[in-house]
Amino acid sequence: MAVDYTTRDGVAVITLNNPPVNGLGHSTRTGIVEGLGRANSDPAVSAIVITGAGKAFSGGADITEFNTPKATQEPTLHTVIKEVEKSAKPVVAAIHSVAMGGGLELALGAHYRIAAPGAQIALPEVKLGILPGAGGTQRLPRAIGLEAALNMIVTGAPVLSEKLANSGPNAGLFDAMAQGDLLDEAVAFARKAADKQSPHPLVRNRKIEHPNAEGFLQFSRNTVAAMSKHYPAPLKCVDAIAAGVKQGFEKGLVFERECFLELVQTPESRALRHAFFGERAASKIPDVPSSTPTREIQKVAVIGAGTMGGGITMNFLNAGVPVTLLETKQEALDRGLATIRKNYEAQVKKGKLTAEKLEARMALLRTTLSWDDLKEADLIIEAVFEELGVKEQVFKRLDEVAKPGAILASNTSTLDVDKIAAFTKRPQDVVGLHFFSPANVMKLLEVVRGKDTAKDVLATVMQIAKQIRKTAVVSGVCDGFIGNRMIEQYVRQALYMLEEGALPAQVDRAIEKFGFAMGPFRMSDLAGNDIGWAIRKRRYQEKPDIKYSKVADRLCELGRFGQKTGAGWYDYKAGERNALPSKLVDDMIVAYSKEVGVERRKISDEEIVERLVYALVNEGAKILEEGIASKASDIDMVYLTGYGFPLWRGGPMLYADTVGLYNVARAIRRYAQQPNGDAWQIASSVADLAGNGGTFN
Ligand code: 3HC
Ligand code: NAI
């Protein structure tokens, strides 16, 4: 049973006990109803306390039950809350740690609420693409006032319990804040409440006071609509609150329920829930159990104070971990240090960081030119030039100076981590930590597992990733790892489409309309077209049998490296980042088609999106088949957190499932028949799943 029942001083204590977060799954709901019945029929009990065991009061409805029969199996959460409200003996919710979603809705049904300070209170349903479906949109405005409630519901953001004690124009959320032991005080509170005359107060009976509710709701509707274009849930939250304001509690409740049932079926909600679980699943490595011991990481060293080294360093300083930063020359160190400080100062200017915190973070940073200063480091991350020879020098040196058991990590984006590990006599301690630029901002961290990387090294870096707030995804060793290997096929298609009849602005527009933050050509102009050029030159030598369009090379031959040279696929006005279509480039593309004997044709936006996205899907499928990624959701997390794939579509693999693999396979086979079709070797898993109606997720 997911609920414990005990009595104390004539008070029944119903304790939700469904680890890890006391989700309100079917067995928990059943337990609460049984507990209420038992307490009400026991003459020795005068009042009831509901609380949660472990690290939460409750994290809300059990999300894993959504869209399964269990979700609607009685007692539903609505029934549970009704039973709480109906209880003849007063019910006190004793809240600590976390009360979210259905957990808070349950507490709102109680007659009284007492909270420990520091508890996180939220209705975060909107982050899962739904709305509070058990009365939250009706009761919270009655508890803390219309404006505060709407804000909490539409953003889903947590608020500390002490900020909600008797706040707002209404009576407030909590009747008392615990000063000492929560349960002791809740039991004492309940005994006193039992002495009061029934009926005991219910939030549903409070009035929503607001001088201009209609005007405020209209304003909210406009603001929310503008801010949540791809997501239906936030606007539905406003609608449900408005229904309660205009038509009263009961009708509002019915409307909220309808909205919930509608939203939970939407692809956006499915995508957001996929991302929620995908992020947590990514931290689990199939053959590295959670019991794997970890190494202690107290001191970090970073080698190279360039673009990546500086950003990587900031992650650790932000988390309070001291960093020693090593360079070859004092000027490089000074430059790196100045950039770090400048980045922090920009945050101070925006009010995101205090001047004291800036100094506290800088105080954790030590710079050096001496390798001896790396002796104490528990984790050393290399971010030097992307040349195997340079990496060799660095790792041989590290092998000499690093203390036994130190983790030696490389931020390489293209080199073979196994080769790098072989430069040392301790390949078990070597791992790839592939940060994305800007490393202090981007959420994604690809953890590259070499053939010898020790399990405790993996367990440790996954833990560290959490500490520095990254979404870590494990990748095996291959060219480009998960993300860049897939993007290569995407870019390959983008270039072919230029050759066949599209222009950069059309390709970018189509895929940005699909939801990508930036199309391939704007992105390439931002990153620098010379980077891809260098990689392609290497490819032409290493893989001469693979065909590529050379149109991007022509662009680079013109010196158009992108924003940094003021010209790339687009023109740029000095000091501006706006991409302006370039007649010169467009003419060059048309001339290139002629030169390679391709008759240009009109390419539809639909074809652009399919070819770009299915190129990702097809390569992602191969990555899964080879075991480079251990699950499809890992690939989705890489694309959601590192490549600007639209969150509301859930990542390339979930998107493929949504479109249906039969349709994906059919399109791939069709494109394989077109000119440049040799880029489409259908992945066997795509073909198989298309045949048997299966999905990646
Ligand atoms: N349902 C099912 N599982 C849940 C869950 C939930 N509501 N909340 C958390 N979990 C699971 C996680 O998947 C994870 O499982 P795992 O160990 O197998 O990976 C485990 O609990 C621990 O979660 P975290 O790693 O996130 O633990 P933290 O301690 O860092 O955070 C938390 C705890 C703040 C509760 C965080 O998990 C969270 O934000 N959960 C989601 C809360 C939420 O969205 N609630 C609303 C649910 S919808 C609802 O209530 C509908 C209602 O209105 C009808
Ligand atoms: P960068 O050129 O900006 O910085 C490299 C720094 O390393 C320079 O400051 C250089 O002085 C220093 N350095 C070179 N040899 C050294 C040595 N032997 N000892 C100490 N310092 C040394 O390069 P960037 O862009 O920061 O890249 C670094 C690494 O990160 C490369 O492996 C690159 O592939 C990888 N990477 C780069 C990304 C990017 O977007 N720039 C993204 C992800 C990974």
Tags for this entry?
697 residues; alpha/beta; 2-enoyl-CoA Hydratase, Chain A, domain 1; Rossmann fold; N-(1-d-carboxylethyl)-l-norvaline Dehydrogenase, domain 2; 8-stranded mixed β-sheet; 6-stranded mixed β-sheet; 28 helices; globular; binds 3-hydroxybutanoyl-coenzyme A; binds 1,4-dihydronicotinamide adenine dinucleotide
Tell me what you see in this structure:
- The chain has 697 residues and is an alpha/beta fold.
- It folds into 3 domains: 3-263, Alpha-Beta Complex (2-enoyl-CoA Hydratase, Chain A, domain 1); 300-475, NAD(P)-binding Rossmann-like Domain (Rossmann fold), CATH 3.40.50; 483-692, N-(1-d-carboxylethyl)-l-norvaline Dehydrogenase, domain 2 (Orthogonal Bundle).
- The chain has 28 helices and 19 strands.
- The model has no long low-confidence stretch (mean pLDDT 96).
- The structure holds 3-hydroxybutanoyl-coenzyme A and 1,4-dihydronicotinamide adenine dinucleotide.
- 3-hydroxybutanoyl-coenzyme A binds at residues 20-21, 23, 56, 59-64, 77, 98, 100-102, 105, 124-125, 128, 132-134, 136, 277, 280.
Topology of this protein?
Blueprint: E1 3-8, E2 11-16, H1 26-41, E3 47-52, H2 69-72, H3 77-86, E4 91-95, E5 98-100, H4 102-109, E6 112-115, E7 120-122, H5 136-144, H6 146-155, E8 159-160, E9 176-177, H7 182-195, H8 213-227, H9 233-247, H10 249-263, H11 267-282, E10 300-303, H12 307-318, E11 323-326, H13 330-349, H14 355-363, E12 365-368, E13 379-382, H15 388-401, E14 407-410, H16 417-421, E15 430-435, E16 444-449, H17 455-467, E17 471-476, H18 481-500, H19 504-514, H20 520-527, H21 529-542, H22 551-557, E18 570-571, E19 580-581, H23 583-595, H24 605-625, H25 632-642, H26 652-659, H27 661-673, H28 684-692
Parallel strand pairs: 2-3, 3-4, 4-6, 5-7, 6-9, 10-11, 10-13, 11-12, 13-14, 14-15, 16-17
Antiparallel strand pairs: 1-2, 7-8, 15-16, 18-19
Domain 3-hydroxyacyl-CoA dehydrogenase C-terminal: 480-572, 608-681
Keywords: Fatty acid metabolism, Isomerase, Lipid degradation, Lipid metabolism, Lyase, Multifunctional enzyme, NAD, Oxidoreductase, Peroxisome
Domain 3-hydroxyacyl-CoA dehydrogenase NAD binding: 299-475
